[in-house]
Amino acid sequence: MTLDLPRAVFHEMTARQQLPRTPETELVMNGVQTVEDYSSCGEEGGALFGPYLYNALQVSARVAPGNQVIDLGCGSGRLLNLIASWNPEVSFVGTDLAPVMLETARRQAELLGLRNVTYLEADFSRLDDFGLHEADAIMSSMALHHLPDRVSLSRCFSSIVRVLKPSGQLYLMDFGRLRSRQAVEIFVGKVARTETPALSQDYRASLYAAFTPDDFDQEILRLGRMDVALHRSVIAPLLMVACTPAPGPAGQRAVNAFLRAQRQLSAHRRAELAQMRLFLRLGGLGFPL
Ligand SMILES: C[S@@+](CC[C@H](N)C(=O)[O-])C[C@H]1O[C@@H](n2cnc3c(N)ncnc32)[C@H](O)[C@@H]1O
Fold it and tell me: Which terms under GO biological process does the entry name (predicted)?
């Protein structure tokens, strides 16, 4: 057992003030190498695959046959294609501003033979291509921290209010900003022990660019909905999920696909996924199994 967590907690508790935000240098991820590196982290066995399984089951529990679902900042589509394959009777639209990401997502969807997912070049902070109350559900994973500033985050939430049905389902997962630089470096150092330098650097940039739980709480108020809550991982808000409650467990097809994929994870990745489940469960977010 390492002393990482107690050290991080100590720094978080003693930080005098909130760490300032440093926006991502690459807001839209369109470099060919960037896309390739990022996409490979989402392959089976990659560092992002466990979080994708987690998000995929959470989203699956919030959709129903016939629904129209929008993914904000879908990236290379690895997560959205996974969700689409688990929920063939639901229609998904992935939005991103990076054409190279979108091309990668479309190619993979085609390889998988998916007919229920399309990809659209669109700014998710505006959602101009979507009409009033068009979506039954809106989801996002690790993308909101790519917005340049707080004003864009507010615009994004206003767009959600316009496009999402009044009682539509919401699942927005992202990193949360820590209070202290030392805690960020402890968590990045933990990742650096097993992952590539590029991924560790990407993780560091994400943690510095993340919005705070307070930022999210204020935006949730903008939604004017009592049923949307913010859940943050305990000990440190490394992960935050703003969501509606799942009406029940995910459908059997999604549950079976999740359990199959989970069994195939290495012991290390399975432990990471279990930790994510535990830390968010202790933050109030149940897992819909
Ligand atoms: C870190 S990736 C996350 C991708 C995917 N959701 C996942 O979970 O792996 C963030 C994505 O958001 C996209 N992005 C950033 N700002 C955007 C905006 N304003 N509108 C649409 N996409 C945006 C980037 O191009 C990038 O593909």
Answer: methylation
